[in-house]
């Protein structure tokens, strides 16, 4: 909720992107947000003095430039992919599995499509009207969701017991920007796209979310707890930030 003013050119440093200001009823302090859709957005509480904004942006210059570069890289990467192509192979690094996909164009009554697994050969067979790219993608994503439910649920349970941090429930989702999340009632949700990442990185995400059952923030105490179970957490967190490059374009982010 809130109102938005049009993009303003940045008066202090023309190198910095233009920004919009959004007044939020809920914001307690001012914050900056960068996204492909909205660009640089300054979210301010109701009574915040607008005149302070240019100086704030100037102070946050390094953060803005660094994150703008990351966004640009990500966009360029996505543009370079052929996003509508269907995969011939699905590589699930986390499980050490590589599935071949075979598309069988067959005539069916309603142009329907089906998917079946040949477990021994690690093959997925898609039959029916396979020219329906979107339909095939939907089936493949559903298969990935089931796969994630099967593996990530038990994986999380295992890690939870190991590090003695219980949680309440788990759900699998396909969020665009989150690998996982933990609510204040200790409900953990995990992104099925984690299946594409390295085992070590997934394990780190599980530990990270389980530590949120104790600390619902990214405070020093939180990181201290994470480091107890994963001393290498900084490197893993960095590789997680780059991990979108591993998720194939057909899955979408
Ligand atoms: Zn977190």
Automatic annotation (TrEMBL):
Lineage of origin: Bacteria, Bacillati, Cyanobacteriota, Cyanophyceae, Pseudanabaenales
Q: Name one Pfam family in it.
A: YgjP-like
Source domain of life is Bacteria
Q: Which PANTHER family match?
A: UNCHARACTERIZED PROTEIN YGJP, UTP PYROPHOSPHATASE
The UniProt record lists the YgjP-like metallopeptidase domain at 31-242
- CDD domains, per the entry: M48_yhfN_like (cd07344)
What is this protein called in UniProt? M48 family metallopeptidase
């Amino acid at each position: 909720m809130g109102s938005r003013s049009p993009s303003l050119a940045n008066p202090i440093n023309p190198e910095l992107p233009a920004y919009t200001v959004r007044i939020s009823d809920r914001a307690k302090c001012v914050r900056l947000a960068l996204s492909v859709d909205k660009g640089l957005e300054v979210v301010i509480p109701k009574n915040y003095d607008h005149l302070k904004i240019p100086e704030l942006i100037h102070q946050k210059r390094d953060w803005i430039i660094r994150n703008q570069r990351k966004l640009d890289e990500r966009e360029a990467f996505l543009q370079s992919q052929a996003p509508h192509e269907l995969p011939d192979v699905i590589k699930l690094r986390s499980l050490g599995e590589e599935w071949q996909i075979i598309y069988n164009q067959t005539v069916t009554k309603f142009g329907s499509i089906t998917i079946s697994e040949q477990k021994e050969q690690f093959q997925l067979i898609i039959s029916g009207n396979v020219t329906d790219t979107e339909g095939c993608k939907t089936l493949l994503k559903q298969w990935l969701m089931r796969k994630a439910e099967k593996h990530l649920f038990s994986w999380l349970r295992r890690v939870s017991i190991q590090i003695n941090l219980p949680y309440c429930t788990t759900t699998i989702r396909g969020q665009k920007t989150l690998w996982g999340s933990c609510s204040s009632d200790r409900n953990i949700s995990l992104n099925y796209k984690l299946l594409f990442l390295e085992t070590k990185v997934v394990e780190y995400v599980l530990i990270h979310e389980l530590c949120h059952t104790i600390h619902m923030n990214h405070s020093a105490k939180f990181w201290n707890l994470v480091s107890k179970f994963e001393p290498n957490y900084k490197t893993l967190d960095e590789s997680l930030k780059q991990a979108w490059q591993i998720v194939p374009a057909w899955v979408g982010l």
